[in-house]
Model the fold of this input.
Amino acid sequence: MILYEKNRLPSSIRSFFSIYSCFYGDLTLPLKGIILYNQPVIWSTRLTYPDIYTREGPFMTLGEQPDFVGNERQLKILQKALEEENILIWNKFNNSNGPRFKANLKGINLSGLKLKEINLNRANLTAADLTATDLRFAKMEEVMLSGANLENADLRGANLNGADLSGSSLLNCNLSKAKLGRVNLNDADLKGADMTDASLTGAQVKPENLAKTIMSNTKLPGKIKIISKTDETSAPPWLKAKNEEEQRKAFRLNKEKEVADEIEKKQLRRLGIKKQPYGSWDDED
Done:
């Protein structure tokens, strides 16, 4: 539950209480049962504006950030963009600092927020909480997300080229059509992640982790081979030993055949006979 400050209420709500105060004084009537944006109003015996606990509705807030260790000024700018439902406020700030700007939002909690098309290129989001966050078509090139929680996050169409996702949790994350070129996915939890039509060209990822994902028309790194449960590399030791013995036997038989053919050729040379390939002799009447 998130507490909205009184001066953060929408202008229409503030106007209502201002007009009410002009005619009736401060609002002292109990507000129990009043519903605002599908959320109950928390009231006391004397209120000018109600204190609202919600994260739903037409406006959003970051709320408390106990684990945040980044830049406070940048946090306030992002807060303003969310409250005014205008992510361009943040994007313009990000772009105004140049193409190599690296926002410091380490440890931020953005869980459940709608951040579609946000620009977080090269931002430091280490250990951030992005659970169920809407990050569709977000710009997140070279972003630092090591140790971050992205469970159930929506990253469809997002650009994560060069991002560091090592040690992060992408459980049931939607990465369909996402750009994941050169991304670091070492030790990341990819179980249930949807990588349909995603591009992982040059990505650092273990094949056994990719085997846990949902893939269809996914562009994989050139050296990556998905290992199935029946693959020889995952076979038990006794089966590996059996396969190795069969390979040695086949090699030995081929070698013996080559030696026998060479002996036969030498004998034919002594007799002045040139060995003909099979089927080349003329049939006698």
Observations:
- The helical segments are 11-24, 72-83, 88-96, 207-210, 237-270.
- The chain has a mean pLDDT of 77.
- The chain is about 25% helix and 5% strand.
